[in-house]
Structures are given as structure tokens and as C-alpha cells.
Design brief:
By secondary structure, this protein is of the alpha+beta class. It contains 2 helices and 9 strands, in the order αβαββββββββ. The protein has one domain (8-174). It has helices at residues 8-62, 73-79; strands at residues 64-68, 84-86, 89-93, 96-103, 106-111, 117-119, 125-135, 143-154, 157-170.
Length: 177
């Protein structure tokens, strides 16, 4: 006759199965937390990239491009359809020149003097590289293509989320719009 109860072996098997099921569930839970954080950082980078684009586009669109990486409009005109490529862009508007460049992992804007630098890219966004491509030609619309790579930062720790961004601005002061 058998007593009403479970043997030690049955209890060990049930506890083992429960441990495996709980372990798998915890793994799925932690992966969803990590992917949720990654999506949050990607959304943050996308939002801040729109802020960078909006703040730079207005000045470039209505200003006059002076040069890229020290190369002026005569070099741009002779460069052909490829344009002039560099890491700095100088734009003039109302007699003031503004230079965009990468300074200490931020896109910076300096108007009139290098000591008055304004960070265009916000805190939490580390910009790894920037490139300006100025395309101009006789009878064609002048444009500037801005491309950069950025990473998210949290508490001065770089998050392993990196995105590339690019936007094109048609320059209205070129005379061909």
C-alpha cells in the first residue's frame, strides 16, 4: 500500500524543472529590458539628430557658404559634381561668420571668435566624426551635405548604440533657387 505523498525523487525533479523554467523566464525578461534600453537610446539619438539638423539648417540655408576646410568658392566651382569635402564649414550671414566643427566630441558653432563656442549637439550625444560636403556649380543649386556618426552617453559612459546621420541643405543665397 502506498502513502499519500510524494517521494524525494519526485520533489527533486519538480524543483529542477521549476528552476529551468524560471531561469529561462528571467533570461527573456532581462533581454527585453536590455532591448528596451537600446530602443530608448536610439530614439534619443534620433530626436537629438533632428535638433542638430534644425539648428544648423537654418543658418546654412539662408547664409552664404564661405568655405569648407579652408577651401573657398573657386575651389568648390572647380571641384565639379563631387564638391569640396572637409571637417569644418564656414557660413556668413549679415557680415558675421560662423564656423561649424567637431570639438571635444560635440558639434560646435563659433561665431566671430573661437572663444565663443556654442555646442550644437546636446549633452548625452557623443559625435565621433563629422563631414561637410559643399557642392556648387555654374547654373546648379548649391547645397551642403552634413554627415556625422554619433553615440549615446549616460553618466559619461558610452552606450553601445551608434548611428550615422546625414542631411542635405539647399543654399538659397547661391542665386539658383
Amino acid at each position: 500500500m502506498r502513502d499519500n505523498g510524494y517521494t524525494l525523487m519526485e520533489l527533486v525533479v519538480v524543483i529542477g524543472v521549476l528552476i529551468v523554467v524560471i531561469g529561462a523566464g528571467m533570461n527573456v525578461f532581462y533581454q527585453s529590458l536590455r532591448s528596451g534600453a537600446k530602443i530608448d537610446y536610439e530614439l534619443f539619438l534620433d530626436g537629438t539628430s533632428r535638433v542638430v539638423e534644425n539648428s544648423m539648417s537654418l543658418l546654412i540655408r539662408y547664409g552664404q557658404v564661405v568655405g569648407v576646410e579652408g577651401q573657398d568658392d573657386s575651389v568648390c566651382l572647380s571641384a565639379g559634381s563631387g564638391g569640396v569635402v572637409g571637417n569644418t564649414l564656414v557660413v556668413a550671414e549679415n557680415g558675421r561668420q560662423t564656423e561649424y566643427a567637431l570639438i571635444s566630441d560635440f558639434i560646435a558653432s563659433s561665431s566671430s571668435s573661437p572663444s565663443q563656442q556654442i555646442m550644437v549637439s546636446p549633452e548625452g550625444m557623443k559625435v565621433n566624426a563629422i563631414e561637410f560636403n559643399w557642392v556648387c556649380g555654374y547654373g546648379k543649386q548649391e547645397k551642403v551635405v552634413v554627415s556625422y556618426r554619433a553615440q549615446a552617453e549616460k553618466d559619461d559612459q558610452v552606450v553601445p548604440v551608434e548611428e550615422s546621420y546625414s542631411f542635405e541643405v539647399l543654399v538659397k543665397n547661391s542665386g539658383y533657387y
